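Whether sequence alone determines local backbone shape is best considered at the level of individual chains. In the encoding step, the backbone of a single protein was reduced to a row of integers, each denoting a local shape. For completeness, the protein is quoted in full, as a sequence line and a line of structure tokens.
***
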Amino acid sequence: MSEESDSLRTSPSVASLSENELLPPPEPPGYVCSLTEELVTKAREELQEKPEWRLRDVQALRDMVRKEYPNLSTSLDDAFLLRFLRARKFDYDRALQLLINYHSCRRSWPEVFNNLKPSALKDVLASGFLTVLPHTDPRGCHVVCIRPDRWIPSNYPITENIRAIYLTLEKLIQSEETQVNGIVILADYKGVSLSKASHFGPFIAKKVIGILQFFLHGSDLNSLHANLPRSILPKEYGGTAGELDTATWNAVLLASEDDFVKEFCQPVPACDSILGQTLLPEGLASDAQCDDSLRAAKSQLYSCY
């Protein structure tokens, strides 16, 4: 048999390949709205989101990013861009600034965002420093519970707590429901020493910033119950929802390991490494460099969410 015949016999021919093998890889699925009719109505009324214009608005933001920041390493997926449009009520300019702030924060604070994944924060999660309550509030907001008294400074630096907060916010904000309803951050100062409270004081305040709302409370639970019903609170906070469960949320985060590795554990291209130095809003860089890490976190949260 000839060499040519032998080659044809031992190598797969084009004709032997299935039709699927010859086709190019499929495009990623387009955006599919997961909002209920009730939330679509809420988004229209409160966020100026019009379903019939939604993809047009996303494309407009995508075009702005490509034109004004062509070297920015960022996802341009519909779902990702929507979170910034919703946070700024579909104002293109403000949504773009929020996106830039978000990436500036990530570039300028490597000790927080580098290697940001659940497995790197097992000590913080095991301490019970923060969790997400199993029930939302009457408006549909998820409630993030932060307990500074669980932090033992000799065990790990305070930046690990900040990393755990960002980890939780990033996981929650992936949900369209959260993008519409928002997040409540509940800080429990009961039993916290004055020295430890001084670290957290500038960070936790009752204020609405973007999708975030903060509540601070100590031993007096009356103000807490005025804002959050007892039915969603654990008994530690005078509620009727049983014991505070931290294990369930920890499991949710740990199950998301691959997603965080893909998003936060990849090298940043050199072409946009200057972003964090040049695009931070005025006053943000100075806060990020100050000794009080929680003041920096406060400024970053205000600018990123």
About this structure: The chain has two domains: 33-107, 116-262. The CA atoms of residues 105 and 300 lie 6 Å apart. Residues 1-22, 191-209, 276-291 have pLDDT under 50 and may be disordered.
